[in-house]
Amino acid sequence: MSSLLIRTWVVHACVLCAGPLALAQPEPSTEPPAEGPSTEEAAPANVVAAESTTDPPANSVAPPPTTTTSAVTTPSWASEVYQRVHASVVRVASPRSAGSGFVFQARNRIATAFHVVAHGRRIRVTNQAGTRWDARIIGVDRDADLAILEVDGDVGEPLTLADPPEVGRPVLAVGHPLMHRPPSGEREGLLGWSLSRGVVSAVGPRRFQFDANVNPGNSGGPVVDSEGRAVGVVVEREAAGIGIATRSRRLEGIGSEPADEYRGRIQFSFGIDLELQMDEASMIGAAAHIGLTSPSGLGLELRGGVVSGAQNVDDDTAYGRHRSRGYAGLLGTYAVQLYPGIQLEFGLGARVSRQQDTISALELAFDGCDPTTMACEANTIVNRHTESSWLVQLEGRVILRLADHLSLGYSLLYDPVNRNVGHALTFGIGF
């Protein structure tokens, strides 16, 4: 047992002593090398030098791996692309909508979304310098929601068209979000030529999905890749972070034939109004209207409604009149755009009314007793009689329409037979 312990201690002692000895390095020789053939000459040709095959020292630091930095990974790539393309983006406005567009193929040709210019009249294009042109539609693709405009002027540098990049690649959307709300005050200078950044989320044969944030007003604007090429036209916003663009290559060939020229479509409208009429009696009621407007701005509107109200005809409150009026009217209209989504409409026509007056009077009844000869007990009764008549009124009307949904109108009514002047105010909701 004791001999075993002695041998164990000896082994540990040898190990401890061997460590420093192993680290000791021999002193370099000061003798000159012996003459003879060099090591390189003596080594065979197929033998690799020892310094290239031996492991590096333990305390050496490996050099960092060589990486290639692409333009997309640099922090300023989006800014550089934006500086190249934003001057080619324009603002597109029509009487009922506003959106974006971009120059392509020629310096006077603009691509946009079809639904932005579907009404086909009084389309205006504005570039970043503030120059404005009247535009005409030379071609549309309704299925792709694409339209091509032309102006008489130099709008800017055309963008190159390209196919969308693969999923995961970065893209930029440039346009005018929410531009149906004019920026002013603290928001002046915003919401125009603004940049959104994202990646391609999915690619289909006709359209692709991207996650750059877009809003109403971006429609028709370009989606560009990291090289500044237009790869898509914004046409939809499904939800936050889900934008849909039509492949820009589908613009090629549209508008190449004269038959492709699009002259607009007739716009149908329907609305319900709250109406207040004021002439001999003040009346309130409801009305409905249906209308159509041509691409030139001319249109027709058919209106109908019922109003009623009570009026005291003199200072004696015991005597009164209740008037009700049902009418139908036809107006010729002309619409003028004040701002995208805001238009002023003028109308001229006539309305025909069936008017009914119910006149009520309080009377005393003596039940066979003659109050002139004796004292009689009187009973109070209400005597009513109704008068009906037809009424024809000439109408001049002005309507302010807001975003196709709200309207505020004023009508001047004139009865040429009785030479009476009336007024009507309406507040409506359109569909």
Can you tell me about this structure?
An eight-stranded antiparallel beta barrel has the order 13-14-15-16-17-18-19-20. Strands 1-2-3-6-5-4 form a six-stranded antiparallel beta barrel. The N and C termini lie far apart (107 Å). It has helices at 2-23, 39-42, 50-53, 77-85, and strands spanning 89-94, 97-103, 109-113, 123-126, 132-141, 146-150, 170-175, 194-203, 207-210, 222-224, 230-239, 242-247, 267-278, 282-293, 298-312, 319-339, 342-365, 379-402, 406-415, 420-430. The protein is built from four helices and 20 strands. By secondary structure, the chain is mainly beta.
Q: How would you concisely characterize the structure shown here?
A:
With 431 residues, this protein is mainly β. Helix content is 9%, strand content 48%.
